[in-house]
Design goal:
Blueprint (H helix, E strand, L loop, with lengths): L4 E6 L14 H22 L1 E6 L2 H13 L9 H26 L6 E3 L3 E4 L11 E7 L1 H11 L3 E3 L5 E5 L4 E4 L2 H9 L3 E3 L6 E6 L2 E4 L6 H11 L4 E5 L6 E2 L7 E2 L2 E3 H9 L8 H13 L4 E5 L4 H5 L5 E4 L4
Parallel strand pairs: 1-2, 1-12, 2-9, 3-9, 4-10, 12-16, 15-17
Antiparallel strand pairs: 4-8, 5-7, 6-7, 10-11, 13-14, 16-17
Helix pairs in contact: 1-3, 2-3, 6-8, 7-8
């Protein structure tokens, strides 16, 4: 069991309660409980676990706070906002997961790590913002945000309009060897949050840049580097669908990599929501991974046993 290694990527939206009255990080602390219960069980039953998380809503909130307070304090760079959300989301996950393990009598250390991820400064995605951050807006409000604040706004898979920022492809995880050392020592590691802090290398120096890396792409890179057996993507829908949002939508239970590629070519996956996850699945399986499970919080354990969610495997299933 101990040889099995699982990377679990938690969606940032699953850690936010949009219903009023919002309590901010207090909501995050409560919402983290469900997924931390599942992570603890994976650690008990399946062996080594590494946890990553999204930060789209949270980094959007940080950007709003920066803007609203800009006349009183200098605003932070977007890379600092990513690092800040890594820090406090990691803190809550570390705390809640530690509580769950303590209650179960399990002596498994949990560590969260602010993680930097190298990107290419010439990545064309810097000129084509695509990564949604922050809350959803109606079309009129989105138009006002675009006009008054200069934001690039895009419709997000029928769910509303969101601000989009550059999302370059992750190339290298700076702290990879430190993560490996912690995992090999038997710790549950929370890292690469929000896709990692995007940085570029200038000679001997590293410098943060204004972008948000897609967390599923970075998690896939992490999972390949760790030689993980399983890669779990926890998101807002409990499985992948063909014809999503249409009367003839059809849930996928178990598919091969080639079958998934065919569905991608046919246009079944929206660029702003499921498509980045599909690309991350492909990267992991092409890199030697064993399987990918896509599901929602509360269904992770069943999905790992094939009773829920969507499982993608390299070969003929």
């Amino acid at each position: 069991m101990a040889a099995h290694r699982t990377v679990v990527a938690i969606g940032g939206n699953s850690l936010v309660d949009y219903s009023p009255p919002s309590r901010g990080n207090l909501d995050t602390h409560e919402l983290a409980r469900e997924v931390c219960e599942e992570i603890a069980t994976i650690a008990q039953q399946h062996g080594s676990v590494v946890v990553t998380h999204g930060n789209g809503p949270q980094v959007g909130f940080e950007l709003l706070r920066n803007e609203m307070a800009s006349e009183m304090v200098p605003p932070d760079g977007m890379d600092v906002n990513v690092a800040a959300t890594q820090g406090y989301i990691g803190y809550y996950l570390q705390q809640v997961l530690g509580d769950v393990l303590e209650e179960r009598g399990e002596d498994i250390p949990v560590t969260s790590m602010v993680t930097q991820v190298v990107v290419d400064p010439d990545d064309p995605r810097f000129d084509d913002p695509s990564k949604p951050v922050g809350p959803f807006y109606g079309s009129r409000e989105a138009e006002r945000m675009s006009r008054d604040r200069g934001w690039v706004m895009k419709e997000d898979a029928g769910r509303g309009w969101r601000r989009v920022v550059p999302s370059p492809i992750p190339r290298k995880i700076v702290e990879m060897e430190a993560i490996k050392a912690l995992v090999d020592s038997g710790q549950i590691v929370i890292c690469t949050g929000g896709g990692g802090v995007p940085v570029i290398r200038e000679g001997f120096k590293i410098r943060g840049v204004a972008a948000v890396i897609d967390k599923d792409h970075a998690s896939s890179l992490l999972a390949v580097g760790l030689k993980a057996d399983s890669f779990v993507i926890s998101t807002s829908v409990c499985r992948v669908f063909k014809n999503y949002g249409r009367p003839d939508q059809e849930g996928l239970d178990r598919v091969t990599l080639e079958e998934l590629r065919k569905l991608e070519r046919e246009g079944h996956f929206a660029p702003g929501s499921m498509l980045p996850k599909i690309r991350a699945v492909e990267n992991f399986l092409e890199g030697g991974g064993g399987r990918v499970v896509i599901t929602c919080p509360g269904k992770i354990l069943d999905a790992m046993e094939g009773r829920a969610g969507t499982t993608v495997v390299p070969g003929n299933g």
